Amino acid sequence: MSVILGPNRYGKAETRLVRVVRDGEVHHLKDINVSSSLSGEMESVHLTGSNAAVLPTDTQKNTAYAFAKKYGVDQIEDFALLLARHFVDSQPTIHHARVEIEEYGWERISGGHSFVRSGREVRTCVVHYDRDGRTSVVSGLKDLVVLNSTDSEFHGYIVDEYTTLQPTGDRILATAVAAQWRHASATGEFGKSYADVRQALLDAFAETYSLSLQQTLYAMGRRVLETRQEVCEIRFAMPNKHHFLVDLAPFGLDNDNEVFYAADRPYGLIEGGVLREDAPDAAFAWE
Amino acid sequence: MSVILGPNRYGKAETRLVRVVRDGEVHHLKDINVSSSLSGEMESVHLTGSNAAVLPTDTQKNTAYAFAKKYGVDQIEDFALLLARHFVDSQPTIHHARVEIEEYGWERISGGHSFVRSGREVRTCVVHYDRDGRTSVVSGLKDLVVLNSTDSEFHGYIVDEYTTLQPTGDRILATAVAAQWRHASATGEFGKSYADVRQALLDAFAETYSLSLQQTLYAMGRRVLETRQEVCEIRFAMPNKHHFLVDLAPFGLDNDNEVFYAADRPYGLIEGGVLREDAPDAAFAWE
Amino acid sequence: MSVILGPNRYGKAETRLVRVVRDGEVHHLKDINVSSSLSGEMESVHLTGSNAAVLPTDTQKNTAYAFAKKYGVDQIEDFALLLARHFVDSQPTIHHARVEIEEYGWERISGGHSFVRSGREVRTCVVHYDRDGRTSVVSGLKDLVVLNSTDSEFHGYIVDEYTTLQPTGDRILATAVAAQWRHASATGEFGKSYADVRQALLDAFAETYSLSLQQTLYAMGRRVLETRQEVCEIRFAMPNKHHFLVDLAPFGLDNDNEVFYAADRPYGLIEGGVLREDAPDAAFAWE
Amino acid sequence: MSVILGPNRYGKAETRLVRVVRDGEVHHLKDINVSSSLSGEMESVHLTGSNAAVLPTDTQKNTAYAFAKKYGVDQIEDFALLLARHFVDSQPTIHHARVEIEEYGWERISGGHSFVRSGREVRTCVVHYDRDGRTSVVSGLKDLVVLNSTDSEFHGYIVDEYTTLQPTGDRILATAVAAQWRHASATGEFGKSYADVRQALLDAFAETYSLSLQQTLYAMGRRVLETRQEVCEIRFAMPNKHHFLVDLAPFGLDNDNEVFYAADRPYGLIEGGVLREDAPDAAFAWE
Predict the structure, then answer these.
(1) Does residue A285 fall inside a structural domain?
(2) Surface-to-core class of residue B225, CB atoms within 10 Å of its CB (0-12 exposed, 13-18 middle, 19+ buried)
(3) Which of B8, B248, C40, D263 is the most exposed place for a label (fewest CB within 10 A)?
(4) Torsion of CA D184, D186, D190, D194, to 10 degrees
(5) C172 Cβ contact partners less than 8 Å away, ≥ 6 residues apart
(6) Which of A72, A104, A133 is the last residue before a domain boundary?
(7) Is the preceding peptide bond at B266 cis, omega within 30 degrees of 0?
(8) Distance (Å, rounded) from C-alpha D19 to C-alpha C260?
(9) C-alpha closest to that of A14 among A41, A32, A29
(10) What is the CATH number of the domain that holds A262?
């Protein structure tokens, strides 16, 4: 029998880093979670335990902190690229770097140095960089929970022997949007891009009269691609957070889409992507 | 040996309920989580399994849904009182009801029926009502995460043989505020009261130059009591969410309160209350 | 207006500590989570920010680690008492200590130093000690998930206008036991006691033909008090983890207690205690 | 601009299902969590909202329950295949099904119908089936937490300007194993296979003197492939659950690998696979 090493990568996950910039009395805050994964000449470490090709995960963590000081943290995509390029360009044994960052939002309370965490969506990015200089940037968000209290129907589906669901002409449609969008280029104004994509997602969700969550998903993706030229592909995972109409008839009450039970599990799960026909090859962007 | 039944209560926990009010094209949304606990003549059910005195937890759930339809859901304190009074007043075997409600905030996206969940703090309440008509109302919030990036010191503490902490004249102070405040009366404008207390908490946190998290806690409580006459007592549980300054000296870099490691565990935990000297007796309010 | 400081305490929560004892080739492992809370002369720190009476939470953490080395960690109750007494006896400003410990179980894989975590229940304790020497010890467990697939009925309950539940003569009864039991004395063989209480809880759950979860709870408490003389009181919080019979009639199938939907929320929640008639006063034991 | 639909799938996630088999007084229990995802002719539902090709997620849930009754639930791989084949074979618009199942273990307490949940690892599987009859079966487990208290070193790694980690000749090595292994065939004795793979993983973890977590990972994968002919590839994600030696020198104490701080974040994350050189093509098995 011959056994071989398959795909592999290693790194430091979830380095929690807060960067403060003091502009006189006014402070600025970045609150991020950095995960780096490296790959390359890793046969030896797996087969013999020799670490000669291994840049320790502890060093990866240190580098994130040191770079936060040296270069600051502005847009997470740029900071991720900085780290990815450093690992690959400085270490011959490291051929590929993947850096993922989450960013948590804060709003000012008052004065210059007091903040309250905005618990809404988390901004995300995943970048890749390899020793041939190939680069990919995927931006994203997760936990953006949205709900339409009407303008959603569901009917006309397949009915088989296990189907008991009744068609509806008016239901609540709710989901927690997780979206990731691929940039055509590794350079850009990622801050403005993020704000505009987020708004496009919200707008399309609100403005789409929905006959299925898939339709809503596609409309959201299409809206982003139509309004943001820098984005060439977008992918979604959207749970259908079911809100079931409660049967109040036993209590002599009608329920005209007024009282709902918000269920936990099971839930529908819709996954899908929208892309430009001429989108460049994704290579490793989605890994 | 003689064994007896001690304190007990039972109920339905975490009934997730969404109430929509349709005002023409404009919809209003209430998203709550209701938990009721009843007690009374419960010797038999424990000792013999006779359920003759038991209002099923399933019925408690149904009642929450039916009442949401019949009476609507405006302020959670009022809705909780409605339920508590119903259970006690309608069932002779139920002598006491405790109803706890969490409310999740939503903001409008656009149009009249599209919403995005505001993931910030959760609004809470706990009410009690017993067959003697005694009533208590405690409002609250949790997961209000706040941070001051300066104006916080910590020094002058006890130093014993196990103390290694160095005093600091400038640190990040961050916490996730969980606060509950007791109303002097069971009637009130709970919506306005909540908004004002929340603001008072944020203001006091932001405006307090802190020598200890205890001092900040007390200042927050004092601010609430000074500005909101309807509140007679407030209690807090505030974790000290440590942000440790990263040592960048090994990399030839200084770190003048710029780069921090946000730690998970362990964390400081400060619990304390502030009350009026003449606050009425709390009775069962905090149970 | 006169505002005063109410009850308060502070400490270090969730110090994760692993203690290894090397007995030649055979290693022994203790994996615990320590939380200490101190109170005493804390007026000044709240009102003025003076930390002169404050033993830092960082020092509390250090003490846990140092004591783990000095004294080892055998039974968590004993280790908690050691810490509690140290804080109060060594610091005049600290009048009361509460120490809570969770312990995570591990089993040997093979050889002397390889372990697999037993993810079942978590063992717990809470001890109190004050400067008058008063001491309390409460042991416990949580997340002990148990299920009877028959021998559970539910009927004979109150039926009001909001009751739709149908009585049943055979259902699944499942719960996640959280139990805490108070020792009559602060000294004892806590390891053996824990093992025996745990077994008594399992036995009573398995052997009780149940007409209500309350009855099962009481039977479990009674069994512990009958078999363990050192325990004077026990308290439970037991969610009724509903397993609903799935209606398979639309598919031409019967369902004789064979296929169930395990629901998340809402759930019943049964809380209650059992104690000896002559149990000593609990004082602060349950705080 | 031309925008197109990318890869997509939809289904019902996390259908919690408990199946009881009554063999006289002795009951048998299966506790599973089923997630199905279908794909096929889904252009219309995305672009126009027509559900004519859509088998509702609610029906997918119903089917899981009905099949549990009709066919029972023995090995999760077989049950997943049954569902996957049904969806594809019965619906012309469904070209591909992916079914994922988690199984939670229970042990008997005593008697025939009382069980306690074994909270250790979760058993998993993912199967695929398409209308060309192509089939893949991946079995797995997650949350298998293991620890070696010695026989682990880490040194000889790259040292760059950001490296501060000190080499060690003796450390704790701990991880939570998540492993998935691909079967060469879609038929097999999955129950015995699972038990043997699990044991091989534990044995290899315990018996490997480790110079890096990568080495341990590879040894575990190799052991499985060497002992289980039905497995052609295995993949791991293994966090390095750091246990840091606490510095007790300030307290005049040494710490010869006795007292550790178990850290949460950040953590190392090692991902990698091991496969037979002649393993058949994976196709969609890992999707």
Answers:
(1) no
(2) buried
(3) D263
(4) 40
(5) C147, C148, C149, C150, C152, C243, C257, C260, D18, D20
(6) A133
(7) yes
(8) 6
(9) A32
(10) 3.10.270.10
pLDDT (tens digit, 9 = 90+) per residue, C12-37?
999 999 999 999 999 999 999 999 99
Neighbours of C48 (CB within 10 A): 13
Q: How many helices (H) and strands (E) does chain B have?
A: 5, 10
Q: Extract the runs of DSSP E, i.e. beta strands, from chain D.
A: 3-23, 26-40, 94-108, 114-130, 135-148, 173-183, 231-240, 243-245, 259-262, 267-276
Question: Is residue D248 domain-shared with residue D224, that is, in the same domain?
Answer: yes
Of C146, C243, C264, nearest to D109 by CB-CB distance is C146
Asked if the structure places residue B240 within a domain, the reply is yes
Distance CA A218, CA D263 (A): 42
Helix (H) or strand (E) holding D198: helix D190-207
Domain presence at residue B281: no
Does D266 sit behind a cis peptide bond, omega within 30 degrees of 0 on the bond before it? Answer: yes
Pairwise CA distance, residues D216 & B258, whole Å:
38
What count of Cα atoms within 13 Å lies in the side-chain half-sphere of residue A9? 17
Query: From residue C206, how far is each of C176, D28, D42, D113 by CA, in Å?
Result: 14, 15, 50, 8
Beta bridge partners of D105: D118
D14 and D82 both lie in a single domain: yes
Q: Which among B74, B103, B280 is positioned nearest to B192, based on CA atoms?
A: B74
- Which of D133, D158, D187 terminates a domain? The answer is D133
In a 3-state reduction of DSSP, which class is residue A168?
Answer: strand
How far is residue B115's CA from residue A202's CA, in Å, rounded to a whole number? Answer: 9
What distance lies between CA D224 and its chain's CA centroid?
A: 15
Q: Which pTM was predicted?
A: 0.98
In a domain, A3, yes or no: no
B151 & B257 share domain: yes
User: Which of C2, C5, C11 minimises the CB distance to B218?
Assistant: C5
* Paired tokens of A132: 């041939």
Res. A220: pLDDT tops 70 = yes
Chain D residues touching C248 at Cβ < 8 A: 65-66, 69
Same domain membership, residue C209 and residue C100: no
Residues 6 or more apart whose Cβ sits within 8 Å of residue A130: A88, A95, A96, A97, A284
Question: Which member of B27, B28, B57, B59 is catalytic?
Answer: B57
Question: C119 pLDDT band (50/70/90 cuts)?
Answer: confident
The count of structural domains within chain C is: 2
Write out chain D residues lying below 8 Å of B162, CB-based.
251
Summarize pLDDT for D191-235 with one digit per residue, the tens. Answer: 999 999 999 999 999 999 999 999 999 999 999 999 999 999 999
Quote the CA–CA distance of A148 and D241 in Å, as a whole number: 42
Q: Do D163 and A56 lie within an 8 Å CB cutoff? A: yes
> Is A161 in contact with C251 (Cβ distance < 8 A)?
yes
Same domain, D147 and D269: yes
For chain B, 287 residues long, give each residue's pLDDT as a single digit of tens.
699 999 999 999 999 999 999 999 999 999 999 999 999 999 999 999 999 999 999 999 999 999 999 999 999 999 999 999 999 999 999 999 999 999 999 999 988 999 999 978 999 999 999 999 999 999 999 999 999 999 999 999 999 999 999 999 999 999 999 999 999 999 999 999 999 999 999 999 999 999 999 999 999 999 999 999 999 999 999 999 999 999 999 999 999 999 999 999 999 999 999 999 999 999 999 99
Residues 6 or more apart from D20 whose CB is under 8 A from it?
A: C149, C172, C257, C258, C259, C260, D27, D28, D29
Tokens 């940039």: give the residue: A183
- ipTM surpassing 0.95, yes or no? yes
Contact B127, B80 (CB under 8 A): yes
Of A18, A261, A264, which is closest to B262 when you measure between CB atoms?
A: A18
Known catalytic residue at B135: no
Domain that holds residue C81: 10-133
